[in-house]
Amino acid sequence: MTHDSLISRLEPPRQAALARLWSILPAMRLVGGVVRDLLADRAIADIDLATPEPPEQVMERLRAQDVHVVATGLQHGTVTAVMDGAPYEITTLRCDVETDGRHAVVRWTQDWRADALRRDFTINAMSVDRAGVLYDYFAGQADLAAGHVRFVGQPALRIEEDALRILRFFRFYGRYGRGQPDQQALYAISCGVALLDGLSVERVWMELQRILVGPNVAAILRLMENTGVLARILPEGHTLERCVRLLDYGAPGHALLRLAGLSAAPLAVARRLKMSRAQTGLLAALNRSTPMPDVSMSDDALRRLVADEPHDVLEGRIWLHQAATPRTAVQNAAFAQLRSRLRGIEAPVFPIAGRDVLAMGGQAGPEVGRIIGLVRQWWLDGGCRAGAHACRMQIKHLLDAKAAQS
After folding, report:
1. Among residues 365, 384, 366, which one has the least CA distance to residue 376?
2. Model-level pTM greater than 0.85?
3. Which domain holds residue 393?
4. Side-chain half-sphere of 96: how many Cα atoms within 13 Å?
5. Structural domain total, the chain
6. CATH number, domain at 37?
7. pLDDT digits over 262-282, tens only?
């Protein structure tokens, strides 16, 4: 089957880069996600390619034609050609010799079907050559059209080879699936859920993030709950219904906000999954219980909150508070109005610093911090409205009071 039109859907710079690569490696094919997304008429992220030549020979041929190439994963047969600043990963055809549930020992092969056999799902196992011919050994095109996400071969065996495929199944089903999910796959996942314990926490978090920001999140999370996956990757406990309400109410599609709604102990999850300091800090801010923005707050009270917390954090906390219990339409409207009021408040900036205390005769040391703290609290109590002159007058009042005491 010829699909010249598939290649023509790529942007001209990518077509030109591929034409040059094919002139050097004529047996090379487009593989995996790029073929799937071209068939599905979706945006293309990365372009992956495969070729029968061993990686050292691939590098030699590319360099002989002045193509910049990087040995990004020689043990896995992968090199990266850089064309006009864009990367094109080229991997030698492989078949597995042995696996340990995550990593595989591979050997090179010239058998395209054997290489396709080691891919996870039928929709990811297709390839297209330079003439636009589609190679589809496992009916991936039909599955893509029907919204079926099926493992290549026996689901249980593929999961035993690499437990990450459990999480990838849910991610791809969320994006490409329609109708009832593959029952053989769900049964194999339910039976093999303990294999998830062997995955690195970093890979678990990477896949969970992608699931949380993907489409059909509520349905996917329910499938993960029903198969025991959710409890396995969130052993601290989960609050699925709160997360579903968060989605139903229209909260932004941020992974950390959705995780904060899903997890019963977000900070414990952050530590276990080795999240970055920034991610952990945001989760801590989202789950800080006080002070909580409230629909009855005055503008001054809201301004005090905005002085200490970014708008997105405060809005996130409002979303989480809203999703904590089922709400009526009137209540949801009140929460929406509260967020709107917050967005209309420009973050106030405390107009003085320690140098102002020193300039007015204050002594360097802890006393500067004490005075600044007192003035800032006075500024907050007044709704963050006082300007620099009024704050300096307050400094003077405190310094005069200190002097009178001594």
Report:
1. 384
2. yes
3. 354-405
4. 17
5. 2
6. 3.30.460.10
7. 999 999 999 999 999 999 999
